TrEMBL record:
<dbReference type="InterPro" id="IPR023333">
    <property type="entry name" value="Proteasome_suB-type"/>
</dbReference>
<dbReference type="InterPro" id="IPR029055">
    <property type="entry name" value="Ntn_hydrolases_N"/>
</dbReference>
<keyword id="KW-0963">Cytoplasm</keyword>
<keyword id="KW-0645">Protease</keyword>
<comment type="similarity">
    <text>Belongs to the peptidase T1B family.</text>
</comment>
<dbReference type="Pfam" id="PF00227">
    <property type="entry name" value="Proteasome"/>
</dbReference>
<protein>
    <recommendedName>
        <fullName>Proteasome subunit beta</fullName>
    </recommendedName>
</protein>
<dbReference type="GO" id="GO:0019774">
    <property type="term" value="C:proteasome core complex, beta-subunit complex"/>
</dbReference>
<comment type="function">
    <text>Non-catalytic component of the proteasome, a multicatalytic proteinase complex which is characterized by its ability to cleave peptides with Arg, Phe, Tyr, Leu, and Glu adjacent to the leaving group at neutral or slightly basic pH. The proteasome has an ATP-dependent proteolytic activity.</text>
</comment>
<comment type="function">
    <text>Component of the proteasome, a multicatalytic proteinase complex which is characterized by its ability to cleave peptides with Arg, Phe, Tyr, Leu, and Glu adjacent to the leaving group at neutral or slightly basic pH. The proteasome has an ATP-dependent proteolytic activity.</text>
</comment>
<dbReference type="GO" id="GO:0051603">
    <property type="term" value="P:proteolysis involved in protein catabolic process"/>
</dbReference>
<keyword id="KW-0539">Nucleus</keyword>
<dbReference type="GO" id="GO:0004298">
    <property type="term" value="F:threonine-type endopeptidase activity"/>
</dbReference>
<keyword id="KW-0888">Threonine protease</keyword>
<dbReference type="InterPro" id="IPR000243">
    <property type="entry name" value="Pept_T1A_subB"/>
</dbReference>
<dbReference type="InterPro" id="IPR016050">
    <property type="entry name" value="Proteasome_bsu_CS"/>
</dbReference>
<keyword id="KW-0378">Hydrolase</keyword>
Amino acid sequence: MDTMRDEKRKAIPAIGFYPQEEISTGTTLIAMEYNGGVVVGTDSRTSAGSFITSRATNKITPITENMVVCRSGSAADTQAIADIAKYHIDVYTMTENKPVTIYRSSQIFRQFLYNYREQLSASVLVAGWDSELGGQVYAIPIGGFVSRQRSTASGSGSTFVQGFLDSQWRPDLTLDECKAIVKQAVGLATFRDGSSGGVVRLAVIDKTGSKFELFRPDKPGFPFVQTPTPHLSFPPHIEQVL
């Protein structure tokens, strides 16, 4: 196996070999259980390094009426995994004549993310509701490890809001309280994370199905972040106007 570091490789035009530098990507995914279901929220920015390829990406992909998957990593990889897993879940549902549980669905995602962990750059949050366990959130980072979470964040923006989520979650959250927390968490992450931005998308999944909402920065309801005013940057003897 060729283990030479990419930065030491040189282009060989004669055979069509042009080494590519790794492209950094980023996103913000939030998911939280409440008393009756799950609320998920995402930003909408797709980036390739410093270039923003899309400002209105939908990172919440419906899998069934009562389950969605939130995608982060390579857009192509996560879209392919979502399509393949959805196909298998639909086949199991038809052949067994009953809905596939959320936990079993997370294991289907895990199987592909683990088997192709060397080829894929994909991390997902599987969120949904079923009659056995109610609302559930399963986090599957790169590599294919599955863990059920009551409140979780994924993507580059998650590092800015994990403490906020830990301080806000409690067992008896109502739907409105949970939506407010998730929306504010996405707003906080997009404010600090340069790879997250755009609109805020929310999805509520419960026994009645999935409901989707969108909040634009130029419309009421978008999360607002109040920052401390900075100290004056010039010497005191220079008159400044804030």
